[in-house]
UniProtKB/TrEMBL annotation:
<protein>
    <submittedName>
        <fullName>Phosphatase PAP2 family protein</fullName>
    </submittedName>
</protein>
<feature type="transmembrane region" description="Helical">
    <location>
        <begin position="107"/>
        <end position="125"/>
    </location>
</feature>
<keyword id="KW-0812">Transmembrane</keyword>
<feature type="domain" description="Phosphatidic acid phosphatase type 2/haloperoxidase">
    <location>
        <begin position="108"/>
        <end position="221"/>
    </location>
</feature>
<feature type="transmembrane region" description="Helical">
    <location>
        <begin position="21"/>
        <end position="44"/>
    </location>
</feature>
<feature type="transmembrane region" description="Helical">
    <location>
        <begin position="145"/>
        <end position="168"/>
    </location>
</feature>
<dbReference type="InterPro" id="IPR000326">
    <property type="entry name" value="PAP2/HPO"/>
</dbReference>
<feature type="transmembrane region" description="Helical">
    <location>
        <begin position="210"/>
        <end position="227"/>
    </location>
</feature>
<keyword id="KW-0472">Membrane</keyword>
<keyword id="KW-1133">Transmembrane helix</keyword>
<dbReference type="InterPro" id="IPR036938">
    <property type="entry name" value="PAP2/HPO_sf"/>
</dbReference>
<feature type="transmembrane region" description="Helical">
    <location>
        <begin position="175"/>
        <end position="198"/>
    </location>
</feature>
<dbReference type="Pfam" id="PF01569">
    <property type="entry name" value="PAP2"/>
</dbReference>
Amino acid sequence: MHQRPPASPSSPSPSPRPAAVRTAALASVFLGASFVLLLVLVALRWHPLLAVDGRISRATHRWAVRDHAVTHAFRLLTDWVWDPLTMRLLAGAAAVWLVWRRAAWWTALWLAVTCAAAALVQQSVKAVVARPRPVWPDPVDSARYAAFPSGHAMTATVVCGLLLWLLHRRGAGRALWWTAVAAALVSVVGVGVTRVWLGVHWASDVLGGWLAGALLVAVAVLVYEWPENERTRLPARRRG
C-alpha cells in the first residue's frame, strides 16, 4: 500500500466552507435587492401592489368573519405558538443549550445577537415606513405599531432559519432534519397566513417580513462561516 505523504506544515489551509460563504453572499444580495424593491413599492404606495393587497385582505376578512372556529384557532396560534416572544424564547433556549452542552459561547452569542438585530431592524423599518394596518368595521383581531414588515413573519423566519442552519451545520440525522424542516415551514408559512386572515396585516407586509427575515439569516450565516471565525464556530459533526 502506498502511504499518502504528510502535508507540508507550510502549506496554506483552504478557506473554510467556501461554498457556504458564496451561497450566503449570493442569497444576501438577492434577498436584499428584493426587500428593498418591495420596501420602495410600499413606501410609494404603488397602486397595483395596493390593489392586490386589498383584494386579498377583503377576501380573507370575509372568511374570518364567517368561520369563527378557524379564526379562533388562528388567534391561538398567532398569539401563543408563533408569537415573536415565543420564537425568541425558543432561540434563547437553544442558546442556553449551546453553552451548557457544547460550551459554544460564540455560537450562542451569534444566535442571540442576530435575534436582537432582527427585532431592532423590524421596529426601525416599521417606524420609517409607518404603513397603516387594515381597518375593518367588524375586526376579528387587533395589533399595535405600523404594518410593514410583519414582525410575526420576520421573527419566525429568523429563528427557524437560524436553528435549521445550526442543525444542518451539525449534520443532524435524517429524521430530525426533515422533522425540523417541516416544523419550520409550517411555522413560517402558517404565521403569515394567520396575520392576513385575522386582518392585521396586508399580504405584502407578510412578504416583507419573510424577505427581511431570510436576509438576516443569510447575513448571519455569512458572518458565521467567514474564514476568520474558524476557531470560534461550532464545529460540524464529522462523518466517517
